Amino acid sequence: EVQLVQSGAEVKTPGESLKISCKGSGYSFTNYWIGWVRQMPGKGLEWMGIIYPGHSETKYSPSFQGQVTISVDKSISTAYLQWSSLKASDTAIYYCARQMRDSSSGYITHFDPWGQGTLVTVSS
Amino acid sequence: DIVMTQSPDSLAVSLGERATINCKSSQNVLKTSDNKNYLAWYRQKPGQPPSLLIYWASTRESGVPDRFSGSGSGTDFTLTISSLQAEDVAVYYCQQYYTTPYSFGQGTKLDIK
User: Which of A124, B39, B65, B92 is the most buried (most CB within 10 A)?
Assistant: First the structure.
């Protein structure tokens, strides 16, 4: 069974750093892009960026470029999302998801499956 | 960036009736090289992560009931639930994967009337 299991909820104060994780299993981790999606309280989904574990290429949304860092450790099939200095506005649920690839064209396609989500609360 | 706009923002439909959700992209998401619409639909039930319903605008994901269907091409797309069931109460999102950033619509909240 293909699964993405995310790290647990975090409570942080503004200015702190944080790294959350997403561990893939049941498939060839290095052959699929992994993406991160933000969902602020009561709001919709925002695409943050993706990483290809095979060679660590990343693509960021302009809205999140420079605000977060996406990385991967392919030896343990785990992707990461990190902040160097959290703000209260970073409070949200963060989902990772495997981004599929079209077998004939190689183009990146839809997200499937999704991790269970990590709630990050930033409050003084 | 491609902006995805869904309508309506919310709707309430009686059990057994049809529900229709629309999604409009600010740019064409039909790729001429493979003649495919780079659009997916997801369902997010309360307290759960999103899950895939439809990809390539009209291909139903394995295990998704056939009451769910997707249609449209280019910039205008529709998700239809032919006979609403109680378990379909959720927020529905469209997403384009034509070009980064792979943007989502704002979501449509579906309730039982």
Answer: B39
